[in-house]
Amino acid sequence: DPEVIRAGLEFVNALGGDPRNTIALIRQLQETGAATPDELALLGKMHARIGETSKAREVRGRLPLETRQTPDGMELEAALLLADGHEEAAGQLLREALLHRLEDESSLRQLAAMDLSSTDPSRRKAMRERLWRVAGGGTPLSLTAVELLSQTKDLTVPQVAELQRIVDGATSTGRETVGLRVLSARMRLSPQLRNELIDQELLRWKNHTPAQTEPLVTWLADEHEYARILRMLPVQTASRYTDLLPAYVDALRSTGQWRELNTLLTSGGIDAAYPKQKLRLWQVEAQIHLHADPAQARQTLSRIFEEAGRGDDLVTTLKAGGLAEQLNQWDLAQACYQAVASKHQHTQEMMLPRIFQMAGYQHDGATMFETCSRMLALKPENLRLLTQKLYLQLLLGIELEMAQMHLQKLPATAAAPDADHLHLLHALAAYRRGEIAPIREALDRVAKPESLTAGERAVYAALLKISGGDAGRAFRIAERISPALLLPEEKIFFQRAL
User: In this model, does residue 417 exceed pLDDT 70?
Assistant: First the structure.
């Protein structure tokens, strides 16, 4: 039934959940032939949001012209412009789309974030004025505007009092949460009153039931008032009312009470309906700080990774990867980051450098080369990425003719220490061609060998010796290098330098 599917679609969008859920529901509408052009525009936008730009372009190509000019159509076009590197044009089009539906809370928040962070003072001023009009308008968005204004940096004491007056007169849901944000603004402006204001607020909440105090406890955590959380909230209450549990756990973590956290997580007192993956992530973190058996922690993380669909659950997989890093479990961290980059393509720019780093820790030159190539594909104008790729290519002996060709196309001039790195590349390329004289010529241009990485210095020392240079100097350079830092291929050069 298309209407049932649309009800589910409206619910998912209201929650702001995983775009893939929205995609799945619109695909169901497509199968029934009931998907509207506006829903198809939303489909394209969701594909673009998770980095599936080819699918987004395919959807955009099927949209009628009038639909491309709707807010969803313009947002889809903006996302594709951004994917093509046209950041300024994308920002302008996205802003135009958001201006068409300022009655929507998400659009107002997004536009406010863009304009309030703008370097243009007139845009910041215009947005503040717009938010003040919305705040005083008595609409469902009034409290949203109050919340956004409470976070601006140039508020005055009278303005905060006006925001508080609006909150006091509001009857809609979220009133108490927004009131706490206004209180944060008061404390920023009057830090000498901080403790007094918090004490007054706690007194105001005194007769609330535990189930009603989630906004207060979350706010205290945001304000880093961890000791107050632990004093006001018994562990049994946090275990039973699990809306309070994240802030309570945050308080234990932030105060270094790892043993207490581990006891909480292993006592069996937490409501069984609470997501097990979150509990396991907290437990691994506690185990790390308590120096527990790393094998057990790794086993737990591997289980979390599998239960997260090996990257399907973006947030959980990233947290698992971060904890694996803390455990020095580089291979597991790399697997987490690779899964995220593969299944959430919009994260590649953030994930690929971390994959490269994990591969480096494992001395895996082949994965470093592959990952560097992918980073370069995202940023083809990045000279440092190109020279890093060429270094790995020449070091590993991968597609040497192609590497030589790209090296010859590089500009002859570069700023130090990039120049030294470039000269080393030319020396290594000459070595791969079996030409001794060009090796010495390139090495003579290296002004500061100490500016090179440990692996590059090993290559430099070996090439110096191979090309008939000062063998004693080559030895002195090499003996200061820790072999533990080197890739296997760099170790071969290291041995030749000794």
Answer: no
Please state, as a whole number, how many other Cβ atoms lie within 10 Å of the Cβ of residue 410.
Answer: 15
Q: How would you classify residue 212: left for phi > 0, otherwise alpha for psi between -120 and 50, otherwise beta?
A: alpha
Instruction: Give the mean model confidence (pLDDT) for residues 320-344.
Output: 95
Query: Taking the CA atoms of the chain, what radius of gyration do you get in angstroms?
Result: 29
pLDDT of residue 442: 94
Extract the tokens encoding 402.
């192609």
> Is 327 in contact with 297 (CB distance < 8 Å)?
yes
- State residue 360's pLDDT score: 97
pLDDT tens figures, 287-303: 999 988 899 999 999 99
What is the C-alpha separation between 107 and 74, in angstroms, rounded?
A: 13
**3-state secondary structure string, the chain?**
CHHHHHHHHHHHHHHCCCHHHHHHHHHHHHHHCCCCHHHHHHHHHHHHHCCCHHHHHHHHHCCCHHHHCCHHHHHHHHHHHHHCCCHHHHHHHHHHHHHCCCCCHHHHHHHHHHHHCCCCHHHHHHHHHHHHHHHCCCCCCHHHHHHHHHCCCCCCHHHHHHHHHHHHHCCCCCHHHHHHHHHHHHHHHCHHHHHHHHHHHHHHCCCCCHHHCHHHHHHHHHCCCHHHHHHHCCHHHHHHCCCCHHHHHHHHHHCCCHHHHHHHHHCCCCCCCCCHHHHHHHHHHHHHHCCCCHHHHHHHHHHHHHHCCCCCCHHHHHHHHHHHHHCCCHHHHHHHHHHHHHHCHHHHHHHHHHHHHHHHHCCCHHHHHHHHHHHHHHCCCCHHHHHHHHHHHHHHCCCHHHHHHHHHHCCCCCCCCHHHHHHHHHHHHHHHHCCHHHHHHHHHCCCCHHHCCHHHHHHHHHHHHHCCCCHHHHHHHHHCCCHHHCCHHHHHHHHHHC
Q: Which of 38-47, 130-139, 301-310, 317-326 has the lowest mean pLDDT?
A: 38-47
Q: How far, in whole angstroms, is CA 484 from its chain's centroid?
A: 30
In angstroms, what CA-CA distances link 377 with 88, 226, 431? 21, 45, 27
Burial of 101 (0-12, 13-18, 19+ CB in 10 A): middle
Band (pLDDT 50/70/90 cuts) for residue 409 is: confident
